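Input set for joint prediction.
Command: fold jointly, output tokens.
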Amino acid sequence: MLFNSTVFLQFFAAFLLLYFLCRNSLTGRNLLIVAGSWVFYGWWNYRFLALLIFSGCFDFCLGRWLGSTVDDRKRKALVVMSVVANLSLLGFFKYYDFFVGSMNALLARMHVAVPLHALGIILPVGISFYTFQSLSYVIDVYRRQVPPTPNLLQYLAYVSFFPQLVAGPIQRGHHLLPQLQQTLNIRPEMLAEGLWLIIWGLCKKVVIADNLAPLVEMVFDNPAIAGPVIGLGALAFAFQIYGDFSGYSDVARGLAKMLGFDLAENFNLPYFATDLREFWRRWHISLSTWLRDYLYISLGGNREGSRRTAVNVLITMLLGGLWHGAAWNFILWGGWHGLGLLVTRWWQRRFPGRLPAWLSLPATFLFVLYGWLLFRAGSFARIHALTASLTDWSAPVWLLHYAVSLVLIVTPLVVIEIWQKRSQNLLAPLAAPWWLRHALQGLLCLGLLLFWEVKSLPFIYFQF
Amino acid sequence: MKSHAYHIRPAEVARLLGGLLPAPIVFAGVMWLGALSGILPAPWPALDVDRTILVHQAQASQSPADADVLFIGDSSCLMDVAGVKLEQALAEKHHVLNLGTFMYVGFGGYSAMLSRYADANPGRLRTVVVLVHPEMLRGMDAPAYYRRFLSDFYAGADLREPDSVHGQLCGVFGLNIFQDRFLGRAPLPLPKEWARFYGFNLDLYQFMNRERGSAVDPHQYAAGPGQGNAEYHLAPALQDQCRALRAALPPSARVVVGLAPVPESFAPPDHASRCQRILAQWAEWVGADGVLASLPMSMPDRFFASTTHLNAAGRLAYSELLARELQPQLEAAANKHPPYKAADEK
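tokens >
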């Protein structure tokens, strides 16, 4: 079920009604959340519900076992068991065919004719998100940062909470679990905030990202394309993926707010970052903090000298790239950002004074932009062709129309983000005078109605 | 234990949701009043490939033009006839305008376009070539949406959306008016291969202007099973519509009819003879003054974009053949009527 579909609006309206009715029972509410989340997930493919349930039950049991064990070796074995089980699940469904394809290519180069068979596995939607969420809970229990929850229903509600189930933000146990264990207070400002996040999030997806999609396809699916258009195409993709993913996160947070929950922020105006480290503190925050806390720090972080730190950064970013998809271009994208982070660290140590924002902001954005080209290109051959074409400055007759179209679509996003940035408040439109707030929300609703597709386009991050 | 508590009054919820309404209501009022008073620009719903082409052809049919040879028909006519190439092959002695449509609007729609052209360009029209794919003569109904699209465009009315809840909401809030009168004038990217060849709706429109109303199907034909049934026939139900088409034209105009080719691998062995029979009968119904009987009824697969459209190379080759076949018809028209002079307009 997609947020940007009429069936979801109907589902959520029915859910809100039932949610209101079970306001006097904590167990009833959590049961409703679990049941609703499974309906939401099963709507796409009910057979993969088993995976979600298995992952939740398995880690719940391990968490309880960890809580009742004091022996460090046994605790370590339990956490390793969780890591292996979750990553095996992820590895099989997400990376098996990629591994087989890469092995076959390698063997073919070595003239070894032992082809391995790909299984054509369908990737269960959201598997990367819920396995990471569940895994983080077990690691936190192991590190004694979170007490093990004794209630299976609460844990299943935590793992399968439908607003953030299929594309995050990845929630930590210490943030969401306590909310599932207590009475929630739903106040007018939460509803106002939730409504704004839902409207603006859907607009970012339906009005901005979905209208940018054909512009992006024009460039990235076109074998013969020249430099100026590739630049504009990368720009279009930068805003498409941002509108798509941050839009999803906003809707997720807005839906949760309507139910009285608070989900952690996932984006904080990333394209205003003035260096790459800041970019990663603002982009897909829930994943970057997950990678920092559970991978980078586990590898030793920056505690073991500059060389080891550099290796740790690179490993973290390469695996972060691989997390996005089973393809070499994602690994290359991770490597590009890893190298960028190393250069940033070196530069900031060598030249401690910060660069002026008018220089560092566009430089960071350009770096990120080329990263998006690697991310979207799809294959090494395509990356090579696009990069080589960057020096070709011929322009198709429709270049001006492309630029005008891009500006028209992106302007609302840029204007609102500048407003948020200047007021240092992501909810700045809610702090505006009432007439402006209502006018803005009303017009955004009109935009949604205008571009609301009968056949909704899926969110990009569903494929990860 | 209590699960959650609502610290909110119904009036606050009503205020929150009611606050969403004033802006859309004002917007709807501006759109409706603007449309009714004629302040807004006229409808121009060039929103995708088929509607851009239909807007272009409808607009061309009611604009002053220099064409004395008019092509009308379905998407085969639109894609198979290369206007500029044809003029060159006719030694620049004639001006051509192709009014073929991508979406089939039926012979009723074509009659409306022809009479509009005749009214907008009195005395100009010498020859009308009706060129269709044999598939169209099976008597299939033209989609109601596109017939209505054409009549609404001529009437300067905004398009009515299908009767879905979404369509009705768009209508109430004036979004249809906004879409028809503003959005269609903005550069909108075309899908996939169309985007690679043309770019945007505005580029397709300009291309058709340059190409005297013709377009190019950017696809490449791949032969294979499941592409339709090539055993064509002429539906008796078309007889009245064909007569109406003839009646829509000034008596001075010569009408010539022809059938578009299909890929060789798609054509059954008796395709040519079958098409000749269909063509002869159809010409009689239309009351045609000439028949393009020697045009090929099939061509090599490499010249096709689909079973119904020639590709960029195919349309050039076909237009050469068409010019040769058309030349005697145009000479006959010239003998029947003196060459057009500007004074004829008076």
